[in-house]
Amino acid sequence: MKLALDQYAHLDSPLHRWHQQLKLIALGGLIFAFAFVETLALLPVMIAITAILFGLSQLPLRFLLSRLQYPGIFIAVVVFVLPLVSGETVLWEWGGIAIRQEGLLSVLLIVTRFVCILTISLILFGTAPFLSSIKAMRSLGLPTVIVDMTLLSYRYLESFGETLTTMQRAMKLRGFEAHRLSKRNTTRLASLMGSLLVRSYEQSQQVYHAMILRGYRYGLNRQPTGFGIALKEATAPMQFWFWFTCAIALSLIIAEILS
How far apart are CA 176 and CA 92, in angstroms? Predict the structure, then answer.
């Protein structure tokens, strides 16, 4: 299990060159606007905006699909259950099982918002080094505790995945067969989870201490930061696309209110 959100941060696209602080505000506003949308007529607009931004980012499609895989499991449950239990207009019925129109429309809205929001989030954090995103969030005034927790959680999940992979490989080499459901395997899996929790706790402390030893937090407060500084340092095209993206997000919210 590896997140590697900034795996393609080295690419050279218009979104990669965009100032991360301005990108956080503009794309963050777009995500908020997407979450605000309830009108089905606005869904094609959301899809078009998302597709254009993803194309401009030059991120590989497999990168998006691999990151949608695990969150999609939870959405799959909603897609399966909601048409069966939500609404009164029955479109199809067989043996007491009915597909309802209101449930299908709700699924369409939920899935579209889920894919669009997650794609924009991947563009936001996938087109810049993760540490740049952390610095940008701090400079925009996000509380230090939240910034630290975000960075540590990201590093912790990376370390957690590596430890889990190593332990699974070691157990497999010793003859452990995970697909067999037995009391012996259950005991071993419980031991694996316990060892993983202990190792992960120790690893999280080591990661935190390593960050401190490498100078994390040193000198960040001395740098001139903030939205005004970022906007001043941005080039004219960056400023244009920043205000253009904010205008699109605001237009979506206004359209949703007026609909």
Answer: 47
38-to-35, 247, 257 alpha-carbon distances in Å: 8, 19, 9
Question: What contacts 40, CB < 8 A, 6 or more positions away?
Answer: 105, 108, 109
pTM of the model: 0.74
Is residue 136 within 8 A of residue 24, CB to CB? The reply is yes
pLDDT surpassing 80 at residue 241: yes
Residue 92 gets which letter from DSSP?
E
Q: Shortest CA distance to 124 belongs to which of 247, 243, 250, 8?
A: 8
Q: CB atoms < 10 A from the CB of 15, how many?
A: 21
Q: How far is CA 90 from CA 9, 77, 97, in A?
A: 48, 20, 10
Question: Contact, 5 vs 124, CB < 8 A?
Answer: no
Cα separation, 63 vs 27, in Å, equals: 19
Cβ(111)–Cβ(75) below 8 Å: yes
Where do the DSSP E strands lie in the chain?
A: 90-94, 97-100
Which structure tokens are listed for 54? 């993803």
* Residue 181, pLDDT score: 66
Check whether 77 has a pLDDT greater than 90: no
